[in-house]
Amino acid sequence: MEQNGRLFVISAPSGAGKTTLIKQVMARFPGLSYSVSHTTRPLRPGEIHGRDYFFVSREVFRQMIDAQAWLEWAQVHANFYGTSRGFVREQLAAGKHLLLDIDVQGARQIMDSGLDSVTVFIMPPSLDVLRQRLQSRGTESADTIDLRLANAKEEIALTHLYQYVVVNDDLETAAGQLCAIFEKEMGQVHEPPEADNG
């Protein structure tokens, strides 16, 4: 496959601060596109179809599995998530840099696909800190938090598969490390905006 753009794959346990870090990277690199995944889970407050996810039915998702339309897909916490193969191919062939925010299952499928990608794992400082962050959200039950922590342990055990690991202990430091990875891999040095002397 002709691939002119760079494909970045970022994974992290739930609550590790991945979404916040990705927003900082996206703001700093205007040439970077965010790959919107498909999911069967319901919309959460503030989410928009086509911006946060493409929200589809389980039936539609299964039809796309049968049609081999996914670059990667996984079942996580009783819902399905997937990345459209056609969308990614079009973006990369057009020379666009693409960021995929996916779990470890999906990342492994991409690693195994032979597609050239840059893989980054966002690590929480510890499982105790992760538990505190999940509890402070106030949106999930104790059972759900326990499930997310159990999954986090399994995901952290696979960090050796990733090219880069960024520990999100201090947000500013982690964001700087992540941006440095993107600068290096995109082959560009980010120039600060010129001062307006008018």
Provide structural commentary.
The chain is of the alpha/beta class. It has one domain: P-loop containing nucleotide triphosphate hydrolases (Rossmann fold), CATH 3.40.50. It is built from seven helices and nine strands; from the N terminus they run βαβββαββαβαβααβα. A five-stranded parallel beta sheet has the order 2-7-1-8-9, sandwiched between helices. It has a four-stranded mixed beta sheet with strand order 4-3-6-5. A hairpin with a 2-residue loop joins β5 (70-76) and β6 (79-84). α1 (18-28) packs across α7 and α5 (127-137) runs antiparallel to α6. The radius of gyration is 17 Å and the shape is globular. The N and C termini lie far apart (48 Å).
How would you sum up this structure in a few lines?
This protein has one domain: P-loop containing nucleotide triphosphate hydrolases (Rossmann fold), CATH 3.40.50.300. Helix content is 41%, strand content 21%.
- Uncertain runs are 189-198
Report the strand count. 9
Please state the average pLDDT score: 89
- Describe the sheet with the most strands: 5 strands, parallel
Strand order of the largest sheet: 2-7-1-8-9
Helix and strand pattern: EHEEEHEEHEHEHHEH
What is the C-level CATH assignment?
Answer: Alpha Beta
CATH level-4 homologous superfamily: P-loop containing nucleotide triphosphate hydrolases
What is the annotated CATH architecture?
3-Layer(aba) Sandwich
> What is the fold named in CATH at topology level?
Rossmann fold
Radius of gyration equals: 17 Å
Distance between the termini: 48 Å
Query: How much of the residues is beta strand, in percent?
Result: 15-25%
Number of helices: 7
Q: Based on CA inertia axes, which overall geometry fits?
A: globular
Give the tally of structural domains: 1
Class of secondary structure makeup:
alpha/beta
The portion of residues assigned to helices is: 40-55%
